Each structure stands twice: as C-alpha cells, then as structure tokens.
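hi!! sorry for the late reply, been swamped w classes. u asked for the two structures so here they r. pasted raw, havent cleaned anything up. first the sequence of the first protein and right below it the tokens
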Amino acid sequence: MPERKPRRWVRRLWLTAAVLLLVTAGLWVGNSSVLWGTGEGRPSLLAHRGIAQTFPLDGVQADTCTATRIHPPDHGHVENTIVSMRAAFDAGADMVEFDVQVTSDGQLAVFHDSILECRTDGSGRVADHTLAELRRLDLGYGYTADNGATYPLRGKAVGLMPTAPEVIAAFPDRELLIDLKNDDPADGAKLADHLATLPASRLATISVYGGDNSVEAVRSRLPQIRATSKAIMKDCLIDYLAAGWTGHVPDSCRHTELHLPQRYGQYLWGWPDLFVDRMREADTRVILVAGDGDWSEGFDQPEDLATAPSGWYGWLWTNRTDVIAPLTR
C-alpha cells in the first residue's frame, strides 16, 4: 500500500510548536540573568526607621499595637530617633528610612503611628498635638516583650522625637528615604515646602514615598526628586511586564524606586541580576522586601538572607542593620 502522507493539520501543529519553542528560547536567552547580568557588587542596605525593635508577624493586623509584642530586646534603640538612625549608619546602612507626619502647628514630626497610645505615654492623634507637646513624650513607653510584665525601654527615649528638617541636617551627606504616613496632599505640600529650600545636590540624596496623593503633591512641586507610591510602582511594573522582554525600560520606571516583595520578583523579565542592571541604567533602585512585603517585614536575621536571590546586589530592606551588615560585607 502507498505510504500515507501526514495530514496537513499535523504538519501545522508541529510547525506551530517549533515556532513557539524558538520564541520561548529567544525570550529566555534575551532575558537571562545568568547570561547578561553583571553579578557584581554587594547588597545596599536600607535601614527601616534606623535600628528598630522587631516583632513576630503572625496575626498582625492594621490596628495591631506592635510595640506590645516585640521580641526580647537585644539593643536599646527606639525607631525613628536620630540616635537609632545614626546607629544604623554606623553599622553599615547605605540609606535610612523615616516616617513623617504634620503636627497641629505645621511641623514635620518624625513618628510612625497616627495615634500615640501604642508606643508612647501620650494619647490622641499626632496631628492634634503641637511639636512642643510631642517632644515631651517618652517614645519607648509602650514597648514590652512579656505582655506588660516589664517595659524595658521606658525612660530611654524621652524628648527624642525629631523633625524631618532635623534628620536631614543631622545626616547632610547620607541617603534618606522619607515616608509620608498620611495620604494627604497637604502633608506632601508641607514636606515639599521644606525640600524646596535645599540645594539640588542635597535633593539628589533624598527620596520620598507614601500614599498616591501625598507623593503626587511632592512630585508636582519637585519633579526632579526621586519619589514612589503604589500607583507609581504599579504603572512601572505593568508597563515593564508588557515591554521588558525586549530589554526596554519604560519611562514609568525611570528615576524612581521599586519596593518589591521577594516572592514576586521572579515574574519580572531578567530577574534578578539583569532586572537590577536595567533599572540601575534607568536611575531606579530595586529594594527587596522580605516575605509578602506586609508590615515592614525585613531581612533582619541571618536566615532571612538565605531567602534572597543568590548573589543579590540590589537593595535589601532591613530593621536590623547591625545584624545584617556584617553578613553582607
């Protein structure tokens, strides 16, 4: 019997499969971190609120008072104070992050919570107090690791709440990241008023992030400043997912910061090294946040470093520069 010729649809199926295989191989080669990433350098460290007290994350919600569930302290620093920030820089931090809120008398106070009861011996909202009133508080008053049996930080941070201008002046040649805690355009405008008084060389070392509205108020006044928010990061990542396979970095990803939970980076073209290289060329920092990125989870213990990409040389978010810096040097 004569040999039967393959059906046309079978030949088309094989041709389609071959084309898809070649396309997939081409995408992998063009975006291979192994082939094209530089793989050089060490991680840069972002010290979250200076050197801070850490806490277990299980069960934490938006309204959880984390000061009442800290790990037993092995240092005496209270977050968001100049003392804790200086300790972070001395330990090896490359940049320090701190939180800013506007007081009732229009000052830029450095404090995380919107209310005072959790961490301090005060009460009410930060926004309802003057700076002078806030200066009298004990910032370590509410911290306990044993359900209130002891309060090891009480009395150690009385009067230590700084202002944003004071922090900027205290570290004149260091990189700083300012977190606008309230998503209010008025807060962004107040911060922009101060930043606008700084020379261009100093502005180049300061970044701002926070809510979409407050950050936009800063960017509209000072478009040259590095700024980011959820909306900015979302626009960048969507655009990059669409175009990054070509090696192109979209404009939405330029001169900004990306705070990326480690579990999601794997879906980005060129991850990890080539992606970091592309963003560096676009003047954008890639800051890796531990876990899902919830509740300021950082690379705080030696075992946390094992979860970062091998040879990572972007930025790492940490609450414990004193622990992590010696391991990354």
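now the second protein. again sequence first, tokens right under
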Amino acid sequence: MAVALVWLRDDLRLDDQPALRAALERGWLPVPVYIHAPDDEGDWAPGAASDAWRRRSLAALAAELERRGSRLLLLHGPTLGTLQALAALTGAEAVLWTRRYEPAIEQRDAKIKRALRQAGLHAESFNGALLFEPWELATRQGDPYRVFTPFWRSARAAWRAPRTWDAPARLPSPDEAGVPHGVPLDDVLPAPRPAWDAGFWDRFVPGEAGARRALAHFVEHALGDYAAARDMAGEPGTSRLSPHLHFGEVSVQRVAAAVLAAGEAVAAADRDRFLAELGWREFAHHVLHHYPHVPGRNLDPRFEAFAWANPSPAKLQAWREGRTGVPIVDAGMRELWHTGWMHNRVRMIVASWLTKHLRLHWEHGARWFWDTLVDADLANNTQGWQWTAGTGADAAPYFRIFNPVAQAAKFDPDGAYIARWVPELAPLPVPARFAPWEHPDLLRRLAPAYPRRPQVDLAAGRQGALDAFAALRSPAL
C-alpha cells in the first residue's frame, strides 16, 4: 500500500480529521507524523504553557493511535527537510495536512507545498480549523470584514453544517510499510522541571478524549444558561474549550454540531450567544490572515502616534504577578499563573488596566499571555488585546475604560472569585474586597500583606488615558 504522510500540527485529533480522512479514502496508508520545529514559527514560537499542553496532547494522541493499531512518528525540524527525508525513506506518494493561518506559518507552508510538488509528491492542505476559510467571506466591495456584526451575519447566512467524520476504530500500521520509529516525546518536549504546570491539570485534560468530555459537560451543564452566566467570573459558565480548539483536539464543526443538536432543550438566546463566540474566534483568524502585521502593530494606524507610557519594569512585573492592589486584576493574573487560563471577562479587565490605567502598549500584555496561556492562539490573543486597547478590528473605543471596582461588583458580586485567587482578602467583608483601599482599617487588620493602594489611582489613571487619547485626536499645530 502506498504511503501518505499525515503531517499533524495544531490538529491533534483523529475524529473529523480531514487529512487523515483523505489518506484513507484515497487508498493510502496514513503515517501520522508530528515535527517539532519552533524556529519555523517566526517571532511567535509557542510559549511555555502551550508547550506544556502540547506535550500531554501528543502523548494522548499517540495512545489513541496505538489503540487503533497505528502509531505517531515524532521528529525534530526543520520541517521541509524533515518531510523530504521522511518521504524519501518511506517512499511516500503524498503529504497531507490541515491549514494554519499564522503569517509566518502560512508563508512557510506555501514554500513547503511548492517544494514537495516540485519533487513529484502529492502535497495537499485542508480546512480543519475554521467554519470558513478567510478568503470565502468578503464585503459587497470584495474587502475583508473589519466589523464583527456584518461578518457574522454573512457567515450565518452562508454556513451549511457539513457532515462530520468519525475516525475508524482501526487504522493500518506504519510497520506495514517499514516506517521507522521517531524520537521519544521527552526529546521533543521535555516535561517541565520543576513541575510548575501542576495546577493546570486540575482543570484541564489535554487530548481528544478530554476535549470530548469537556464538550459534553458544557452542553449538558452550562450551555442552557450561557448567555447569563458566561460573564460571571466565579461561576463555571463558559465552555473552557478554547485550548482544545486551539490544539485541534476537537473540530469547530463538531462543537457547532453538538450545540445545535441540543435543540429545544436550550434556549435560542443561549445557543446563539455561544455560536457568536465561535464567530469571534472565526473573525479573529480572518483578520489575522488578511492583516498579517497585526500581531506586532496596531490595525488602526492612528495609534502609531499614541503616547503610550514608558514601561516601568516594577509596574509591569506587579501586573504579571497579581500585585497591582486592584483585587479583580490580581485575581485574574494569579488564576492565569496557577491554571494557565483566565476567565474571558477578567481578561478584558486586566487588559484594560494595563492599556488604559497604566497606559502600557498592549503588546506587553499579549506577550505575557502568549507565554502563560494554555489556549495561546495568535489570532485570538491579538484580537483580544487590540480590541480592549481600542486599536484593532471592531475594537472598543479607547475611551471605553473599565472601572475594575464596578466590574468586580457586577461580575463577582459575592467576591468568591477574588477570595479564591487573592486569599489574603477573604477575611474582608464582600464590599471591601472590591476596593480594599477604601477600607484602610480593615485592610490593615485583616489583610496586612495586601498592597495599601492600587499601583495607580483609578481616577488619575483614567484621566491620563483620556488626555492621551484627546491629544491623539487633536490636529498637529
């Protein structure tokens, strides 16, 4: 049987896996291969938290393949030379993969496809990550969408749910074609020493089976109240599927199908609100494809002249470590450090504090999230930071400045989220947890280790941001 290399990247699954499906349907013996090549990723090589997740996901995928009679071939990069050498060694006729949309990866993959085809191989890529390819949706003028609402309206009108594909119970073994074994997982991605990621796995189970369980749990227990509960920081109201989607452990088509299959058991408002969140993920990838400069530059060019503050290492480090003196901000940053994840509402709050009250460039935050989030996705991370900073596609206006005290009172009304992640504030009565500097006697007696005041006065920080924005809008003299 002729061999096809099924080149896996951020599509670490067998279910609804288009490259694997194509190999089987065309009569090739699929050889699943993962090539670790962080140097190919340009300025955005995966961060530490991503690598910690990827290591476990690869182990889970290898076990799933072995259970079906196949195996995962793990190799080091550089990618093109490794694929060429492996194809020559195995006599492969084809190399199949699912597409990625990061700028450096798109450029690399185009070169790889050309080189493989020039060598006489069948090289083909598939959509395995999005509902629509970025070139399939456009405005009436033929331009990319930069505003979410018309984008999503167009997408919903055009979307026809495809039939998803179930992985077969058995797969042919690469041993049949004399395919060699690769390198051990520990040589590709060693386990963290010390195990700083231990807290991640209390919340998440990487791998395809973990993704299926997370999806089923969400549909059964949280989808029915999603519209109301998704913003509540202390409640399990979100899907927590983002890392599974980023690593391709479940397809977005499978997720959408599961939500729609809930039918009348779930109110339309809850179902539609969650599908719109999938739409924001889609929108972010489309923006990244069409505007590949956005990971390092403002989409709105006006902000190239904005008076960002000079970064104070002490203030930036205090923000990273959850020592800002603003409880909801500190809670979010500590949750991130301990679990590799942060509630989406809190992500906006901590980003607003950094880019508005501290007036630091959003890339400082984007880089920190990139290294510490298990769901660090270049499209979503960039879109989220530029949205909050007011510099990106369909962004909140810069003058929209979250008041972290009001946000905490609204989205953590019982103070449970703050008490969990900033336990030194747990002895304070609930109202004092939101703005402890307003209760100096209580703070001194019950939480002496917590900062006496925020790293910047809330009113002064807000006014500084507004003044900088007003100067940006004023015509030059």
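hope this helps!! also noticed smth abt the second:
The CA atoms of residues 68 and 170 lie 4 Å apart.
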